[in-house]
């Protein structure tokens, strides 16, 4: 995609995104590109500054990097999820049915993990059955 700074014959500036320079030319020739302010179809490209890496952009990218406390929190969550999985029975698609059996005393108390649709989860909660989703933790390489 190419981003162009555009202006109309009335001096209004705006941006447009196009798949190619030819796509821009085709759309302008067909009067498909119009000014969002005045609807003029007389539109042209303006000079654009090149994309330059600045200190502000670098700071914004660094803000996306996890600090040590965040890394430790993710590691603890990873351990917690692992422990839950190791100490619970995975009943898969039967989760709603098995959770109800335990809740109503038809089966022994035990930890369960499995799958439920959003509707099934809401129904379980409405019945007073305590459930919670397991968090999906990104792997270390992500």
From TrEMBL:
InterPro entries recorded: DUF1178
Pfam families on file: DUF1178 (PF06676)
Official protein name in the record: DUF1178 family protein
């Amino acid at each position: 995609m190419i981003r162009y700074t555009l202006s109309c014959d009335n001096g209004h500036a705006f941006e447009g995104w196009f798949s190619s320079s030819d796509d821009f030319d085709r759309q302008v020739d067909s009067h498909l590109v119009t000014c969002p302010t005045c609807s003029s179809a007389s539109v042209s490209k303006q000079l654009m500054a090149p994309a330059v890496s600045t200190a502000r952009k670098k700071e914004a990218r660094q803000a996306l990097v996890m600090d040590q406390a965040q890394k430790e929190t993710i590691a603890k969550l990873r351990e917690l999820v692992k422990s839950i999985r190791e100490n619970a029975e995975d009943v898969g698609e039967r989760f709603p049915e098995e959770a109800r059996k335990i809740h109503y005393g038809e089966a022994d108390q035990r930890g369960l993990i499995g799958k439920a649709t959003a509707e099934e989860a809401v129904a379980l909660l409405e019945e007073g059955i305590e459930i919670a989703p397991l968090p999906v933790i990104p792997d270390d390489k992500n």
